[in-house]
Write a structure and sequence with these properties.
Helix content is about 5%, strand content about 40%. With about 350 residues, the protein is mostly beta strands.
């Protein structure tokens, strides 16, 4: 039988947060990061909401929260680092019995999945439908957050199933409740109020520095909430630039994009536009008004194996949830030739 934490409440006194001040530059928006430090996390306190769906994960296979529980906004200006302690408090109920569940801290912007403390996740057993589960756990990070700070719930993992913990084989709804007396860390509240007027930001994105390669894969159309896998719409990829952000992306901000790479095949017209994939915007929000070819085509006549250099500027026209900001890269599908097919663009660094 595997060992799990008890579902009973674990009494713990929150360690006093380390306050941050102004950096030596004198800018009120620049906190001094003093690490290691403690962060407090009440799982009901995310921007995702208090109702979390756990659904089948086709890549697992297991059942996994979708969307993830997102706390990126709370820590963006002082992201947790390896050695920091995350004091996680939870109080929740589910709509089904779950023999064993795993709650872990994740940065999904690092190779799609980086567990921040793989050997120190919250493991719970014998959860009964409708019953309140409450407790806490101090988790010391072994990896730093570079992009997003999220919490994932999973069950039916191969390592959670045994004779005493059978598979659930079905989705669940987790409802989180506020833990009395606990206030989640919000770095914004630690910073002094800026005395200078806030204006548009310039965000420099050097793609070949943040993405070693870009796999442009077959894109299938969505009809009435379902993807039609028998049809091809285009070839597409998303490049996250969340790791570069310290503040929310706002209307008027400027994206200065450079990219030096080498494609695996010819591309006649490579297109790009900034998008937001956050749950709060319904997974898809275009962040520019001008989506004409004149604005979104960033390169023409790329040749397989030949190095290209691209410079492109976008001015953001709409505010974003800023929890999943990406550059959508794509090229069109030629119905006459059934091409050109998927492509990998490898970063070429100086």
């Amino acid at each position: 039988m595997k060992k799990f934490l008890s579902c009973a409440a674990i009494l713990c006194v929150a360690t006093t947060l380390l306050l941050t001040g102004c950096a030596s530059t004198g800018k009120a928006s620049d906190p001094v990061s003093v690490h290691p430090r403690d962060y407090v996390l009440d799982l009901s306190d995310s921007i995702t909401g208090t109702t979390i769906n756990v659904v089948y994960n086709q890549y697992g296979p297991n059942y996994q929260s979708d969307p993830a529980i997102d706390y990126t906004k709370r820590v963006r200006k002082d992201k947790p680092k390896a050695g920091d302690t995350i004091q996680v408090y939870y109080k929740f109920s589910t709509d089904i019995d779950i023999p064993a569940v795993r709650i872990s801290l994740i940065d999904p912007t690092v190779n799609y999945w980086l567990e921040l403390a793989a050997d120190d996740a919250i493991m719970l057993e014998n959860i009964k439908a409708g019953e309140i589960v409450e407790g806490s756990k101090d988790i010391v990070l072994t990896n730093s957050v570079s992009g997003e700070f999220k919490v994932y719930i999973a069950y039916d993992n191969a390592d959670l199933i045994d004779d005493d913990h059978p598979a659930v084989n079905g989705p669940a709804v987790f409802t989180f409740y506020d833990v009395e007396g606990i206030e989640s860390t919000d770095v914004e509240k630690e910073l002094p109020v800026s005395e200078t007027a806030k204006g548009p930001k310039t965000i420099n994105i050097q793609i070949d520095k943040i993405a070693g390669f870009c796999e442009i894969a077959t894109g299938h159309p969505w009809v009435d909430g379902q993807q039609i896998m028998s049809e091809i719409e285009n070839y597409q990829a998303d490049i996250s630039y969340m790791s570069l952000l310290e503040e929310e992306v706002e209307e008027g901000d400027i994206l200065n994009i450079t990219w030096r790479g080498k494609p695996s095949q010819d591309i006649s017209e490579l297109k790009m536009m900034p998008v937001d994939h956050s749950a709060s915007v319904g997974w898809w929000k275009i962040m520019i008004n001008d989506t004409s070819d004149d604005n979104v085509i960033i390169a023409r006549d790329l040749k397989a194996g030949e190095v290209f250099e691209i410079t492109k500027t976008f001015v953001i026209d709409t505010a974003s949830a800023s929890t999943d900001c990406n550059l959508r890269v794509w090229y069109e599908y030629d119905k006459e030739t059934n091409g050109p097919g998927p492509c990998t663009i490898i970063a070429v660094r100086n």
